[in-house]
Amino acid sequence: xxxxxxxxxxxxxxxxxxxxxxxxxxxxxxxxxxxxxxxxxxxxxxxxxxxxxxxxxxxxxxxxxxxxxxxxxxxxxxxxxxxxxxxxxxxxxxxxxxxxxxxxxxxxxxxxxxxxxxxxxxxxxxxxxxxxxxxxxxxxxxxxxxxxxxxxxxxxxxxxxxxxxxxxxxxxxxxxxxxxxxxxxxxxxxxxxxxxxxxxxxxxxxxxxxxxxxxxxxxxxxxxxxxxxxxxxxxxxxxxxxxxxxxxxxxxxxxxxxxxxxxxxxxxxxxxxxxxxxxxxxxxxxx
Amino acid sequence: xxxxxxxxxxxxxxxxxxxxxxxxxxxxxxxxxxxxxxxxxxxxxxxxxxxxxxxxxxxxxxxxxxxxxxxxxxxxxxxxxxxxxxxxxxxxxxxxxxxxxxxxxxxxxxxxxxxxxxxxxxxxxxxxxxxxxxxxxxxxxxxxxxxxxxxxxxxxxxxxxxxxxxxxxxxxxxxxxxxxxxxxxxxxxxxxxxxxxxxxxxxxxxxxxxxxxxxxxxxxxxxxxxxxxxxxxxxxxxxxxxxxxxxxxxxxxxxxxxxxxxxxxxxxxxxxxxxxxxxxxxxxxxxxxxxxxxxxxxxxxxxxxxxxxxxxxxxxxxxxxxxxxxxxxxxxxxxxxxxxxxxxxxxxxxxxxxxxxxxxxxxxxxxxxxxxxxxxxxxxxxxxxxxxxxxxxxxxx
Amino acid sequence: xxxxxxxxxxxxxxxxxxxxxxxxxxxxxxxxxxxxxxxxxxxxxxxxxxxxxxxxxxxxxxxxxxxxxxxxxxxxxxxxxxxxxxxxxxxxxxxxxxxxxxxxxxxxxxxxxxxxxxxxxxxxxxxxxxxxxxxxxxxxxxxxxxxxxxxxxxxxxxxxxxxxxxxxxxxxxxxxxxxxxxxxxxxxxxxxxxxxxxxxxxxxxxxxxxxxxxxxxxxxxxxxxxxxxxxxxxxxxxxxxxxxxxxxxxxxxxxxxxxxxxxxxxxxxxxxxxxxxxxxxxxx
Lengths: 287, 397, 284
Hints:
Helix content of chain C: over 70%
Number of helices of chain B: 14
Oligomer: heterotrimer
CATH architecture of the largest domain in chain B: 3-Layer(aba) Sandwich
CATH superfamily of the largest domain in chain B: Periplasmic binding protein-like II
Shape of chain B: globular
């Protein structure tokens, strides 16, 4: 699109301001992580690195690994269920098809406190089971399904079913077609969906509060418990900075994975032209 | 297109219909009660420790200074969850995932009524013999003639202020509750975020509006309740922060966002430790502004679904060991429950300063209590806890 | 084994669909919707004030209280208003950024920008809010910055909640709009310009309508996330939002909390239905 020089400059300024808005609180957070004083004074009196080794040694470490565990299992479940659902919706016609998308998005669209209390009520009052990491995983998987589903169905819709038909014509059965034709083409969408789902689970606090067992802690839960303890606050800040730094890699991966399809993680393409290869048609058949 | 829409509509109605059917079905018969625990059963004998004990407590009640020796001695690892309000504690206890709780008077009756706690067999707790006698057999820890807990300690809610900005030193609660006086500190007042704060207004009105005839700030009829609620509503526009986490209040006093308000000794000590210019209603005055104050007398109770009852009994005995109770009392800043603790405190005058041995002093402290409709005056017109909770929501707006 | 299964499914599309959907639908309908239904059933009950036991007799008492007491209308109104404000703010902030990323930036810049927008999503929600709490406190960063101008920051309150929520959910708005804009073929824009449209006209009559469903998709997140949050209002204000009251009542009055929880559920379901009509579901 051709924009006048002034418009382009104005746009650049606005974007710069937007990015500043996004990153200033993170920088402030970073500065507090190096703040030598435990009390939140601004500007900080002096800087120190002492909180980082303390952060790594603290109970945050256990919480971190618990979060990883929960995230991995919840993502695996979400991948399974999300893929199954997307296959059904993208490749078949049946009664109630339109409602599946709606159903799948509900756990993430309804307030976390509603989901949390409802699941808690079911677990403890109706099923009579104790809260534990298992219940947290179940809860997380429930709202992670939608992320996988959306990425997966976007990919399936773009992928012309003619490939699968050709495969069937060549004599492959349903399972073989899925394994050798459909799945490889979906891999990057699933990868992106999985990464996003993991990110969602890793940072979740509200639903977790209502479904976690007594002795367990995920990382957000640990942060929440230590949020106001003056002694721990600098360590909390350091932990947060570490998490942000570690997460740069998966974010970049997620982007690369979806860029092969020609768009960022949340994209569904119709009529999208892809750079750098990939067999796409400008007009894909609408399901 | 048409068929698609018709399908969608049909699906939607089917799902809604299904949900309604489920709802009505359950509303009618209700879900089965899974509470299979026996109530009213006390432990008869303490067996071997189970290796851990899960506690719920107020901030500052369970600290390494006395949990580490306990863990060493009994092998019971202590897992502690700090709660900010009695409501939180009740909710956590009802989940059945914890072994015990340091319950204040506005939680004990609810826990007993709800069968969430068992009576305590005090014969299994040797240190109980030397607990102060005016803490035993109290309405907040004894029900149906049976003791339901082990006293932990007691204290009054303090008035704390920033000594640099609030002068002269206040002697009355009017500095937070009387609209004309309190308006000087608009936006700097820190109030406890809990329905029990209504009782603070009632205590104030008891002294300043005797016509209302308030006797017990937790037993209020319509007129008295309305007056107290009205006072808190007027305070609303002057409040800077409603706190329920002790640490949140510490940080706002430290930063100067709050300058005066209700607090516990725990926060006062923390701020003093950071060198902040705070002062609290002085010990020489008896810790109380002239109207008196609300307070609490806390009791360790054991869950009826405790998975580690032996460790819990060991904990209850440990926490009122003279040395441990002395440490607890001095750390938090409250009067100990254990008589013999007074010899063990680092500050030899501690018990005197905190009036641990003066039953008369505590008559001016109105321990937190569960408001009940049946408040023993013959009529059943007192406001109950649900009313208090609703009113508190309306007050905060 | 897989051969046998494949033969079983061959030519039986219904069976295929059934097998595919059994897991997800079973989980979501029975597990999730069922839990919701049970919770909502509780809204028709009441509770014994002292023991906390549920009194399982049908009554609309909770809903009567919700309608009669003015404070609940205030709280719902406040929550919905701020949710709407946050959505509008984020849409306005996100669009230029997303537009620049999709249509103006070079390939390399685009990649950097996408990663730059995604990274804050991975920093802990709690810590971001805490950071804002620090910045907003008296004498904090914001006051310090505004002092030379003779102004002071908004402090804690509704403004703070609006600011922080707009901040938190901005990436959720940027991404769908970016994706939607990317999908508009450049050929359409060129065609519009060839036909004589000035940039603003092209924007208004070609780009905006095509990007609108994506904006709606983003708004689902900003609206829903604001509607149910209770942690941010608690940390940067003294005001009660729907989530706070639900949270406060869960322990001693679950039926009442459930009744209040119905409000955001109804609002969101309505919002989702409208969003779907507007085509947003293609863009989530």
